[in-house]
Design brief:
This protein is 32% helix and 25% strand. The chain has six helices and seven strands. The two termini are 26 Å apart.
Length: 197
């Protein structure tokens, strides 16, 4: 499958019905998800592999991994509302994906690869740290999204855990007016997709 075909397919993934601001539930854009997962596929980290999607939301990364031939895909989220939409998305794609309701700290299975778009810590400081901790505990290869201005922190944090960020790609992320505290119809921020090994 070409990257463009993956992106077109992922445009059909339905976003959150009722996003929770405390969980920073913003959708991962299909263009960014397709780019990250396609690159992971090209690196040999998807096809035939066990992939965990930590904080899977409505299933964007899980579905992308399944579409690119993951041997097993498991998505975890703490939000029952998000998982309800994720289950509907998985069903509409006819995908074979295991979705589990769980706090990220309670995940106790390993994988070959972790994909995640964790909270950035805008609403609750350090909200991304439990995700980083769990991802590094679960897998040798982690693909994760963070605010671009926090990449230095992510690098240092990973090095403290004897891991390193081996790649960093910057994207423009357009945040739509989602919550009442948003003052603009949309805002563009820079995010970074990092690979942790």
């Amino acid at each position: 499958m070409r990257k463009k075909d993956l992106e077109i397919a992922l445009e059909k993934v339905r976003p959150f019905d009722d996003p929770d601001p405390t969980l920073e539930q913003y959708p991962t854009p299909a263009t960014i998800a397709a780019d990250i997962v396609y690159n992971a596929y090209c690196a040999g980290d998807i096809q035939g592999m066990k992939v965990l999607d930590l904080g899977c939301g409505t299933g964007m990364f899980s579905i992308a991994a399944w579409m690119m031939g993951a041997g097993m895909t498991v998505g975890y989220d703490v939000s029952e509302k998000a998982l309800k939409v994720a289950r509907e998305n998985v069903e509409s794609f006819g995908a074979d994906i295991d979705l589990k309701l769980s706090d990220i700290r309670d995940v106790d299975e390993g994988a070959d690869t972790v994909l995640m778009n964790p909270p950035f810590g805008s609403q609750k400081k350090y909200a991304d740290r439990p995700f980083l901790d769990k991802a590094m505990e679960c897998a040798e290869k982690v693909y994760s999204i963070h605010m671009a201005n926090s990449v230095d922190f992510v690098k240092e944090y990973c090095e403290e855990k004897s891991r390193r960020v081996t790649s960093c790609k910057i994207y423009k992320y357009v945040i739509p007016h989602t919550f009442s505290f948003h003052t603009k119809m949309k805002q563009t921020v820079e995010i970074a997709a990092v690979i942790i090994e």
